[in-house]
Amino acid sequence: MVKLASLEKKIFEVEGFRVLFKQNGKKIRKDRAGFAQYPFSRKAAEKMTVREYVEKRLQPHYGGFEIEVIDGKGKKVTGQTTLATLRSSYQ
Known about the structure:
Elements: H1 4-15, E1 18-23, E2 26-27, H2 50-62, E3 66-70, H3 83-88
């Protein structure tokens, strides 16, 4: 089990974008422990949408949380945004 800060860092390293974990609409403290390791070592397909990514990669492992995907400008992205578009916002 890892702290939230480590989990978010690992997701960024693998996927190339940031995610925020929330509970009851509030951000979770970065020092909160007890999260499972991010189980993927390869990034998700470029054509996958943010909605698909959250549903297929995050919800099965972190289902008790609200998850927001953040673009390179720090804004929440919509579910139909492709991961290719999202990743390019960080350049």
